[in-house]
Amino acid sequence: MTCKTFTIILVILGMMLFSPTFHSAAFAYEKITDFILKAYPGGPATLIPDDFLKSGSDDDFGYAHEGYIGGFKIICRTKDGRIKSVHAQKQFNAGDLSAEHTYFNILGSVLNKLLKRYNGTLINEKSRGESTDKVPYDYGDYCYYTALKGEGKTINSKDFKLGFWYDLGIWKRCDNDGYNSSSPAKVIIEFRPSN
Questions:
Q1: Is the Cα dihedral 89, 164, 149, 96 positive or negative?
Q2: Distance between CA 144 and CA 172 in Å, rounded?
Q3: Is 1 helix (H, G, I), strand (E, B) or coil?
Q4: What is the per-residue pLDDT for 190?
Q5: What is the tens place of the pLDDT at every residue in 124-174?
Q6: What total number of domains does the chain contain?
Q7: Which of 144, 125, 126 is nearest to 136 (CA)?
Q8: Which of 49, 55, 67, 160 is most deeply buried (CB count within 10 A of its CB)?
């Protein structure tokens, strides 16, 4: 009897362990991590996936390549066949800590490698603070928009700035409670030339 119970428990644990939904969050940040390490500023434009939508021309701004990886919206700029900048952003539920967890998972995977590759210095932006804007909305009443900015890290090198940030969303509080709302938290990754 105990042998059968033990076997059933092992089978259930095995199914959970290899279930795609169990690992979907891990796979999502691993995909964006792989992209960050491959499609770096200064690298060849051929590193950008073929299914990204390409627009623009090879002028001062260069081509824009837009696509999605692991739920992140990515915009890369290329000029003369080289990657000039990378911007990636993803929205998260403001009610949990998923933005913060994703931010730290990505940093843990790429930070040391990028510091070595670009021979840069690391700047920590602990708790970038909060800001509140007071906006009139109707008949002398006001709404207050509070943006909560989380941690950020920037790698400064001779040629590039590589930035990682997470924001905890924007809360809208109004004199009339019917207008209250919140917007999603975000993880933002931005690589651009230092000049």
A1: positive
A2: 6
A3: coil
A4: 84
A5: 876 666 677 777 877 777 888 887 777 788 888 888 888 888 877 777 888
A6: 1
A7: 144
A8: 160
| DSSP string for residues in 49-79 | -TTSEEEE-SSSS-EEEEEEETTEEEEEEEE
In angstroms, the Cα distances linking 11 to 5, 19, 144, 162 are 10, 12, 53, 44
Query: Which tokens in the block code for residue 65?
Result: 């390549």
Which pair of tokens denotes residue 18? Answer: 């290899």
What's 27's DSSP letter?
H
| pLDDT, tens digit (0-9, with 9 covering 90-100), for 53-110 | 988 877 777 899 999 988 889 999 998 889 988 988 888 776 667 777 888 888 888 8
Domain extent at residue 154: 2-193
The Cβ of residue 16 has, within 10 Å, a number of other Cβ atoms equal to 11
Residue 105 is which amino acid?
A: N
Neighbours of 41 (CB within 10 A): 21
**Distance between CA atoms of residues 19 and 23, nearest Å:** 7
